[in-house]
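Tutorial, part two.
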Amino acid sequence: MNEKTAFAERLAAAMRSAGYEPRPAVLEREFNLRYWGKPVTLQGVRRWLCGETLPKQEKLQVLAEWLGIEPQALRYGEAAGLRIREARGRWEASISGEERQVLQHYLALPVAQRKVVAQVIEAFSHAYGTHPDESDEASKER
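Running the prediction step on this input gives:
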């Protein structure tokens, strides 16, 4: 199944869950009541429901808010959001409070200063043989 068809199925399911019949006329009316941009045509929403096209991000946001679903879950499915949260959770659990604080300070720096800090870290990494680009053989020699 391609991504447009999968999106169409998620959209129809979300409409049913929210108490709406997944028909183009219903989708057009309800979407345009909530969207402040140029109204979407009946043909446009029909293409979403038939899996022919995907809505732009701003329209996806409106759909998700209306249907009470996370935008990424509507666009990519529940599993995609879970994989992202799981990976982030594992990474965040593996760093200490001190490391987290250093990262927060780093992220608060202007971009130019972040580049300098990254170059310093890179230099230390090369000097102490912890650079990920180095082969295992070179590390064993030290």
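The two ends are 51 Å apart (CA to CA). In part three we will examine how such features are distributed along the chain.
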